[in-house]
Write a structure and sequence with these properties.
Layout (H helix, E strand, L loop, with lengths): L4 H9 L11 H21 L3 H14 L6 H16 L2
Helix pairs in contact: 1-2, 1-4
Length: 86
């Protein structure tokens, strides 16, 4: 399942997301801003859903559909963030 940009934003703002203790609000806001920029950039790199489905279908049909550990870990991390806001 793909996590939407809005779900990621909400997860980053959610009160259950642990924040480092001892840092003032300005530092936390800078860290959050950098995180939001990074997440936004990564989401923009993702193909549109229809393109993604077509590409995966072609790979499955050709027998070349394989996931790396990094891809799986990335999806799990995004899903965990999104689940925190539900």
């Amino acid at each position: 399942m793909i996590v939407s940009k809005e779900e990621t934003r909400q997860a980053l703002r959610h009160p259950n997301v642990e924040r480092p203790k001892g840092l003032d609000d300005a530092v936390i806001k800078l860290v959050e801003a950098d995180t939001i920029k990074e997440v936004t950039a990564r989401v923009k790199e993702l193909p549109d859903r229809e393109e993604l489905v077509a590409r995966i279908k072609e790979q499955v049909d050709a027998g070349t559909y394989h996931h790396s550990g990094e891809v799986i870990a990335d999806a799990m991390a995004r899903r965990a963030l999104a689940d925190r806001i539900r």
